[in-house]
Amino acid sequence: QVQLVESGGGLVQAGDSLRLSCVASGLTFGRTTMGWFRRAPGKEREFVSRFHWYGLTYYADSVKGRFTISRDNTKNTVYLQMNSLKPEDTAVYSCAADCTDWGTMSCPYWGQGTQVTVSS
């Protein structure tokens, strides 16, 4: 059984930083592409970033240059370092794994989500 457990969310001020973590179990982490999505209040879920198992990373334009995705295959964990946070980054951030189509969010495995709130 695959489980994804996120942590690290919280309430911060604009300009602050946060690091989210997602610990995976039940899958071959080193061969699994991992990523992050977010859903802001009243908006559709959107792609944030992904880290392919073979090393490539991708970011949404809205977070490029501010967010960094990384992974530690020894800990089955993917991270999302978020710097220079803005109020518009406020959302529930969810970890996903092994998506067949990241554009349509076709992902078999999801975490429960962690709330990030950025005050102005």
Distance between the termini: 40 Å
Largest sheet data: 7 strands, mixed
Mean pLDDT: 97
- Radius of gyration over all CA atoms, rounded: 13 Å
Q: Which shape, going by the Cα principal axes?
A: globular
Strand content: over 45%
- Structural category: mainly beta
Can you give me a brief rundown of this structure?
The protein has 120 residues and is mainly β. The strands form two sheets. Strands 2, 4, 5, 6, 9, 10 and 11 form a seven-stranded mixed beta sheet that branches. Strands 1-3-8-7 form a four-stranded antiparallel beta sheet, with no helix packed on it. A hairpin with a 5-residue loop joins strand 5 and strand 6.
Topology:
Elements: E1 3-7, E2 10-13, E3 18-25, E4 34-39, E5 45-51, E6 57-59, E7 67-72, E8 77-82, E9 91-97, E10 109-110, E11 114-119
Parallel strand pairs: 2-11
Antiparallel strand pairs: 1-3, 3-8, 4-5, 4-9, 5-6, 7-8, 9-10, 9-11
Please supply descriptive tags for the structure shown above.
120 residues, mainly beta, seven-stranded mixed β-sheet, four-stranded antiparallel β-sheet
Description:
The chain is mostly beta strands. The chain is built from no helices and eleven strands. The strands form two sheets. Strands 2, 4, 5, 6, 9, 10 and 11 form a seven-stranded mixed beta sheet that branches. The chain has a four-stranded antiparallel beta sheet with strand order 1-3-8-7, with no helix packed on it. A hairpin with a 5-residue loop joins strand 4 and strand 5. The N and C termini lie far apart (40 Å). The model has no long low-confidence stretch (mean pLDDT 97).
